[in-house]
Amino acid sequence: MRLVILGGGESGVGTAILGKKKGYEVFVSDFGKIKGNYKEILIINGIAWEEEKHTEDFILNADVVMKSPGIPDKSPIVKKLLEKGIAVISEIEFAAPFTDATIIGITGSNGKTTTTMLAHHLLKSAGLNVGLGGNIGKSFAWQIADNKYDSYVLELSSFQLDGIVDFKPHIAIITNISPDHLDRYDYKYENYIDAKFRITMNQTEDDYLIYDADDEAINEWFKTHTTKAKLIPFSLTKIFSEGAYIKNNKMEIKINREEFTMDTEHIALEGKHNMKNAMAATSVAKLMQIRKATIRESLSNFQGVEHRLEKVLKIQNVQYINDSKATNVNATFFALDSMNTPTVWIVGGVDKGNDYNELMSLVREKVKAIICLGVDNKKIIDVFGNVVDMMIEVSNMDDAVRMAQRLSEKGDTVLLSPACASFDLFENYEDRGNQFKQAVKNL
């Protein structure tokens, strides 16, 4: 069997190692450059590879192709493969049949990283032999090749779910759905929503789907679609006989005739959206039979995720917060919603079809100044130009942070929450967040 892998990054190299171990003839092809450390691993393992090109003679004779999530279906080589009827799948689809571990799959427009990390923290703290992967950390395929985990918590992007056929998690979570990546879905929101719900398409009556019952797009989908999985909703406003909810400042979870309660003030994560993430992750812990005392302890000591409402420093009584991971409007909505002080907001980058009007009431209420950090800020200026007293454009992070310091006074917050992708000025959102933290430390 010939396995061709498009993309020589973490998921590509992980799949190559697993494929080789399982007896495939493996070839890795990357249209860009392959990083040195990955090249070394391919060479050590005797895996054939090429970079900065796709040689059709070596690719179009594949039995199966694993495509890295970053490569769109519209790319010429993928189109040719599909025309020839060759299966093009994601790493998750390729790897899953080679493990009988329990799989917990988590998707959503926002909150999926926090929920994934928290669910992993809950299970690991309870002594479970559990791996963390998917869209974060070490490649799922690589872990299956190397390790013997009994369960995996996987963060799954819509791009990874686009490439599944038979993959089915025992426990699936949809944290929420808001418009994102519409450029990859023909600018049709319903296509993106359907991609997220692929997580449950192969689930059976023995599986579970945990979902946000307050989410408009999710509720709309359920009006015309069904899943065989057992449903476990969570909500900030509704109460369930089976599910998770907040009542009288307590988180209450009822699953399989068992109850769990905890005062929300003892949960380390702050903000309404994080209560939802906590409910989703705790529902997983309950399904995995984790003891109540362990769950309480883990919820109270969880550190959160880097670049997600991360408190950096307080300087002259101004709190600097790094929310670089907010790459869409919905994520920034949560960030602004959790601000309790006048805020200097650093925003901008590559716009993925954003509607900033959703932020209008929060900006009026909380934001005193806006610093636009992007190559093209026209849309942000058009929407908020008359709403805030101060609006400034900058083209690098040092200037953004220095301006923020000038515009802020005692008791204010400076919030980096871009609502956009970072590729115009930075390598990725981590690079953007790290530059912000460094610039704050240099003040």
TrEMBL record:
Enzyme class: ligase
Catalytic reaction list: UDP-N-acetyl-alpha-D-muramoyl-L-alanine + D-glutamate + ATP = UDP-N-acetyl-alpha-D-muramoyl-L-alanyl-D-glutamate + ADP + phosphate + H(+)
Pathway it works in: Cell wall biogenesis; peptidoglycan biosynthesis
Residues binding ATP: 108-114
EC number: 6.3.2.9
GO process terms (BP): cell division; cell wall organization; peptidoglycan biosynthetic process; regulation of cell shape
Function comment: Cell wall formation. Catalyzes the addition of glutamate to the nucleotide precursor UDP-N-acetylmuramoyl-L-alanine (UMA).
ATP-binding found in the keyword field: yes
Tagged with keyword Kinase: no
Organism of derivation: Flavobacterium petrolei
Record's protein name: UDP-N-acetylmuramoylalanine--D-glutamate ligase
Any one GO MF annotation of this record: UDP-N-acetylmuramoylalanine-D-glutamate ligase activity
GO cellular-component term (any): cytoplasm
Residue intervals of the Mur ligase central domain: 106-284
Subcellular localization: Cytoplasm
Family listed: Belongs to the MurCDEF family.
Domain Mur ligase C-terminal, residue spans: 307-420
Keywords: ATP-binding, Cell cycle, Cell division, Cell shape, Cell wall biogenesis/degradation, Cytoplasm, Ligase, Nucleotide-binding, Peptidoglycan synthesis
